Amino acid sequence: MTGGIALPGNRWDLLDGRTPDVAPSVSVVVAHYEQPEQLARCLAGLAGQDHPADRLEVIVADDGSTVAPDVPEGVRLVRHADEGFRLAAVRNLGAAHATGDVLVFLDADTVPEPGFVRELTRMPGLAPDVVTVGRRRHADLTGVAPVADVRSVVTGRELPEPAWLAEAYDRSRNLLDADDRSYRHTIGAVLACSRVVFDATGGFDESFRSYGGEDWEWTYRAWLSGALLAHVPEAVAWHDGPDAGARDDHDRATRNAEAILLAGLIPVPRTRPRGLPSSHVDIAVTAPCGASEGAAFVSVDSVVAAVPGSEWVDAAALIDARGRLDRVRLHIEIVRQVRVDRRLDDLLERIARDGIGTVSILDEHDDVLLRIRSSRASAREGRWGREDLFPHVSERVEGVRLLAGEPDVAAYLGGWG
């Protein structure tokens, strides 16, 4: 890959104080459906951006409104038929027509402050792996006329921000300390990414046909494809109305439906089902080459037993990474026949917490028994042709040992040998 800065781990803070020599070319995709007054306010806010006008493209992506929305000269309008709620699909439609190197996703009921685009696209413009989420504030904008600077009209109209989200940003230092569950702290209405990252994900999942979840699912896949996550509190846009979670109509049943849908699509712990089988493989285990049937059986079975959420997969199928294998988070390669006699939860938690790229587990002779690879690390390092963007460590782990000779499978299963 050429162009931009390759960053280690989730270290977007290495970009602090830096701005692109040339402002990135930006395409703002505004998702719209039957919101003419709100759209007018949003487009007025975009017209007032301090990002260079010749580097800014605005596309209104209409989800099948009865009457096509009016857009000012210079704003592009793309539409598809009304087939129900299709926010994911209409965002993809807008992105398909975009020409910018950086994509910004904004909803029609959200009005950006003048510095929104500049602040939100700075990091993706410097380092294309960075996905940024702005600060969505809330106000009652009913009856407010379109203005270039929304700050002049929001005073006295402010509504509460979701406390859980603000606390998450504070706790994670604006996502600098992101982990495999930080997808929950992104908002599709104030989101930016490079075209490189968007294409790597294949876009939003168009099977989402109701409110909520499509941005989290997309962000998780972006994370697995090597993205960094950053919250940019200076990139402010004002949503017309309260947060969805604070509305009376956003009831427990609605939230449950979203959680169940995401449980089938994001196999990471604390999102996937706790007892039911997952629709996608989270941790893939591949068998040792050249081992006997018995040695391969004990190796794979003991590793899978030691690693909750793992499954044996065929190594050849893992290369294509399709279907159930399209969001594998970790690949455990059994290099030599082994037996694992303890759970490895602590090791897996450390890999996630510390953003480790590879852990090679050694025997007493420093030969590799198991190799645990992070898909996220492999994707980013592969994109840049580098091997130094994540920590790669080797260590001995108690309870993981070389399986010498042909094992007694019955004794292994029965627990007496």
Structural class assignment: alpha/beta
What is the helical fraction, as a range of percent?
25-40%
Sheet of most strands: 9 strands, mixed
Distance between the termini: 51 Å
Report the β-strand fraction as a percent range: 15-25%
Low-confidence stretches: none
| Arithmetic mean of pLDDT | 94
Q: Using DSSP, what is the number of strands?
A: 17
Global shape: elongated
Rg result: 24 Å
The run of helices and strands is EHEEHEEHEEHEHHEHEHEHEEHEEHEEH
Count of discrete alpha- or pi-helical segments spanning 4 or more residues:
12
Question: In terms of topology, how is this protein built?
Answer:
Layout: E1 26-32, H1 36-47, E2 56-62, E3 76-79, H2 87-97, E4 102-107, E5 110-112, H3 116-126, E6 130-139, E7 158-159, H4 163-171, E8 190-194, H5 195-201, H6 214-224, E9 228-240, H7 252-263, E10 283-286, H8 293-306, E11 310-312, H9 315-320, E12 330-334, E13 338-340, H10 345-354, E14 358-362, E15 368-374, H11 375-384, E16 392-396, E17 400-402, H12 409-414
Parallel strand pairs: 1-2, 1-4, 2-3, 6-9, 10-11, 10-12, 14-16
Antiparallel strand pairs: 4-8, 5-9, 6-7, 6-8, 12-15, 13-17, 14-15
Describe it for me?
By secondary structure, this protein is an alpha/beta fold. The protein is built from 12 helices and 17 strands. Strands 1, 2, 3, 4, 5, 6, 7, 8 and 9 form a 9-stranded mixed sheet that branches. Strands 11-10-12-15-14-16 form a 6-stranded mixed sheet. β10 (283-286), α8 and β11 (310-312) form a beta-alpha-beta unit. The longest helix is centred in the C-terminal third of the chain and has 14 residues, at 293-306. The chain starts with 25 loop residues before the first strand and ends with a helix. The mean pLDDT is 94.
